[in-house]
Amino acid sequence: MTDQPARAALFRGRSLFPVLAIAIFAVIVVFFAVGLTKDSRKLPSALLDQPAPGFDLPPLTSALPGLKTVDLQGRVSLVNVWASWCGPCRVEHPLLMRLARDGRAEVVGINWKDKKDDAENFLKELGNPYARIGFDASGRVGIDWGVYGVPETYVIDREGRIRYKVVGPIMPDELKDSILPLIESLKK
Amino acid sequence: MKAARALVLLFALLLAPAASAVEPDEMLKDLVLESRARELSRHLRCLVCQNQSIDDSAAPLARDLRVLVRERLVAGDSDDKVLGFLTQRYGSFVLLKPPVKPATYLLWFGPFAVLILGGLGLWWIVRKRPKLAAPAPLSADEQKRLQAMLTGDRKR
Description:
The structure holds two protein chains of two kinds.
Chain A: H1 4-11, H2 16-37, E1 56-57, E2 67-68, E3 77-82, H3 87-102, E4 106-112, H4 116-126, E5 133-136, H5 140-145, E6 152-156, E7 162-167, H6 172-187
Parallel strand pairs in A: 3-4, 4-5
Antiparallel strand pairs in A: 1-2, 3-6, 6-7
Chain B: H1 2-15, H2 31-42, H3 60-74, H4 79-90, H5 105-128, H6 140-151
Helix pairs in contact in B: 2-3
C-alpha cells in the first residue's frame, strides 16, 4: 500500500499534468464540434476558383439555346444542374424562378441524365427559369463539373470561373446569406 | 482427411473475390486493361454512396465512372493519369486511400504522434511513481496462525 503523503506527492508539484489533460480534451471537443456538425455528404468542389470545364451541350428544346463554356463569360451566371426525376429539384424550383425574375445573375441549366420528354414536361408543369439549357443525357459533362447528384448549383463569375457550389437544393437562408451577396460582389 | 478438405474449401472461399457491381457489357475485351480497370475501380470512391468503391457500387454514377475509367485506359492513359483525371474533378476524396500530402499529414501521422506522446506520458508517470514498499514479513504470531489454518486445526 502506498501511503497517502507519497500519493499526494505524485500529483503535487505537477501542475502541467492537469493542464495538459484539459488541453487535449479541449482539442478533441473542438474536433468533434466541427466534424460532427458538418454534413459529410456535401463535398466541396475540387474546381472552386478554377475556370468552368470546357463543354458544349446541345439544347434541350428548340425554343431555348444549348449551353457551352463561352456562354458563361462576360456575366455572372448561376448554373443549375437538374433532372425531372429529382425530387429536391422541385423543392428549389420556386427559388430559381424568383432568381430568374430578379435578373441579378443569368440562370442557366444543365439537364443531367434525363429524358427529353420528361424534362420538357417538368418545365411545362412548373415553369422555366432557365435562359439556356444544355442537355447532358449521358451525364459526361456533369462528371467534368464534378457533379455527383442533383440538384447542384454553381455560381460563375464574369471570367467564367467557378466561385461557389451548392450541393442539394438551394435553401432560402443560403441564398440570402451567401449566394446573393457573392453575386453582388462579383458584379462590381 | 475430411478436416483437411474442409480447410481447403474454407480457404478457397476466403480467397474468392467479393462480388462486384461490374456488369458484363461494361467489361473490356482486353484482359490486361480490364484487370487494370478493376484494380483502379477498387480504389475509387463512389461519390453517391461514399463508403463503397465504384467497383462495388450499383449506383448509376458509379457505373458512369467505371465506363469512364475504361475509356481512359483504352485511350492509352496510365493508371496515375486516370486517377488524376478524376481527382481534378472530384478532389482527393474520390480516392479511397488518401494521398500523403501536407493536408493529410495529421491523418497519416497523427496516430503515431498520439502513440509516442502516450508512451512518453506513461514512461514519465511510471518513472515518477514512488516505489511500492516491500511487504513486511509475517510476525511469529501470524506465522503460527497460518500454520494452524493450513493444517485445518483452527482455533476458535
